[in-house]
Design a protein that fits this description.
- The chain is α/β, with parallel strands linked by helices and about 280 residues long.
- Helix content is about 35%, strand content about 15%.
- The chain is built from 11 helices and 11 strands.
- It has a 7-stranded mixed beta sheet with strand order 5-4-3-7-8-10-9. A two-stranded antiparallel sheet has the order 1-11.
- α4 links the parallel β3 and β4.
- α1 packs across α4.
């Protein structure tokens, strides 16, 4: 996606402060400290605040998702998406990440409330359609701290499993893994890269999310918040192969604008030296 002067802001109104803000509110300053942190240090057990699913809401949400999936599947947007994924260059990148493996799991972070908003339903519908279309996509895991018990049950009915731990985006890619993260905050992408900042794990990652080219553009116009929260994103740009998703319809703009596929191929340890001191923003 061409670089934009605006960060993508989807209607994912979560209550957990670690997942809510893409840009800081005016007058609120962030401070960053250097700290060596492990991926496990940020993980916390999680259960939905609504402990029991509501059968009536569950049925209505399943119906909403079925309608949404059918709408996306019949759209020109989806046809364009498939053409991008099935482009020989991109398919080759997927196969390179897979290596000798037959499939890769899909990890979905920050999907938002699929019951409350259409944008997350569009995003989830695309993930479900990918799983149905491509036999090299394995198990699908989902997490967002705002998910209710009702939403979790619906996700399970669609073939997904909901994580019981808030990984803060710090999943270690010990095997080929597709991270599906449309319109997440910069910190989550940064956390994912930080947790995998070695040659082998980075080569195991396929990432669908906000354009890294866009973050680089924003950093060049001296947005200090972007610079503070995207150290690993910006450092990864030099070994990232990015393929932008084109949006042909306004119906899908809010859900997918400025989104890209990202493949990482650092060849030398020296390419990872720029971000050895890890920044933690509070």
């Amino acid at each position: 996606m061409a670089a934009s002067a605006k960060l993508p802001v989807a209607d994912k109104h979560t209550k957990n402060e670690d997942w809510t803000v893409v840009l800081p509110r005016r007058g609120k300053r962030r401070t960053c400290s250097r700290r060596n942190s492990t991926p496990e240090a940020k993980q916390q057990p999680w259960v939905p605040t609504e402990l029991e699913s509501d059968p009536d809401r569950e049925l209505k949400l399943i119906q909403k998702m079925e309608i949404c999936i059918k709408k996306v599947e019949s759209s020109q947007f989806y046809q364009n998406f498939l053409e991008l994924v099935e482009n020989p260059d991109i398919l080759n990148s997927f196969h390179k990440v897979l290596g000798l493996e037959l499939e890769m799991p899909m990890v979905i972070y920050g999907i938002g409330s699929i019951e409350s908003y259409e944008t997350p339903r569009f995003q989830l519908s695309l993930a479900v359609l990918m799983k149905r279309k491509f036999n090299w996509i394995g198990d699908v895991e989902v997490f967002d701290p705002i998910l209710s018990a009702t939403e979790s049950r619906v996700l399970e009915s669609l073939g997904c499993s909901v994580l019981s731990v808030n990984e803060q985006g710090r999943r270690r890619a010990t095997k080929p893994t597709l991270f599906y993260m449309p319109h997440c905050e910069a910190e989550l992408y940064n956390n994912l890269l930080q947790a995998n900042w070695e040659l082998e794990p980075l080569n195991h990652i396929v990432l669908f999310g906000n354009s890294f080219e866009m973050y680089e553009f924003l950093s060049e116009i001296k947005n200090s918040f972007i610079v503070d929260s995207t150290g690993h994103i910006l450092a990864a740009r030099k070994f990232t192969d990015e393929h932008a998703l084109k949006i042909a319809s306004d119906d899908y703009f809010a859900a997918f604008h400025d989104s890209s596929w990202h493949f990482f191929s650092p060849a030398l340890d020296t390419e990872l030296l720029l971000v050895k001191n890890q920044f933690v923003c509070t």
